[in-house]
Amino acid sequence: MNEQQNSINAASEKPQQGQSALADDMLHGADAIGSFLGLKPRQVYHQRKRLPVFQIGAALCARKSTLLRWITEQEAKAQVERA
Questions:
Q1: Cβ 60 vs Cβ 27: under 8 Å
Q2: Cβ 36 vs Cβ 64: under 8 Å
Q3: Which residue in 12, 19, 30, 75 is a FRET match for 5, CA 20 to 30 A apart?
Q4: Residue 28, Cβ neighbours under 10 Å: how many?
Q5: What is the pTM of this model?
Q6: In this structure, are residues 61 and 26 in contact, taking their beta carbons and an 8 Å threshold?
Q7: Do 65 and 25 touch, CB atoms closer than 8 A?
Q8: 3-class secondary-structure state, position 15
Q9: Is the pLDDT of residue 6 over 50?
């Protein structure tokens, strides 16, 4: 039974660590997204169809990792178009 309890305790600890990582990766609101991208909040709202963002309730949200990957993809597309 001790092994079973240990595995249950270990499993219950993992979501807390994952939640912390998710919280660190999450941008909540156009202000936060704009700050991260160097845009004004109004520009974030205007470009929300092109940016990899999603809504939670009325708030616009994004993941930093997703935005960085999207920027890398945009840079690669631009280099191919120039060639």
A1: no
A2: yes
A3: 19
A4: 13
A5: 0.73
A6: yes
A7: yes
A8: helix
A9: no
